[in-house]
Write a structure and sequence with these properties.
mainly beta, single chain, globular, 4-stranded antiparallel β-sheet
Length: 114
């Protein structure tokens, strides 16, 4: 069956860094673009970043541009999100998804607090 499993979340101080990973299985990962979304408490889920199937093109929300980097390893069926210069407003549950197939992971919590 299809699985997307996120990991790497945690508690970090403002200005710190985290690296999120999403391991995919059960579908042909390498042919699909992948996205990261996040949802803060009491907020709507919002787009964070996307990457094309071959990894050559990426796109970011304005709020994270220059601080976050999305990447993928098709040989390992993983998509990653490097989070740098974290701010309190980056707090939330981070989800990876394959938008074309509407496959979603269960999410990983990121908390930015001193």
């Amino acid at each position: 069956q299809v699985q997307l499993v996120e990991s790497g979340g945690g508690l970090v101080q403002p200005g710190g860094s985290l690296r999120l990973s999403c391991a995919a299985s059960g579908f042909t990962f390498s042919v699909y673009s992948m996205n990261w979304y996040r949802q803060g408490s009491g907020k709507e889920r919002e787009f964070v970043a996307s990457i094309t199937s071959n990894g050559l093109s990426t796109h970011y929300a304005d709020s994270v541009k220059g601080r976050f980097t999305i990447s993928r390893d098709n040989a390992k069926s993983t998509v990653n999100l490097q989070l740098n210069s974290l701010k309190s407003e980056d707090t939330g549950v981070y989800y990876c998804c394959a938008p074309v197939k509407n496959y979603w992971g269960q999410g990983t919590q990121v908390t930015v607090s001193s």
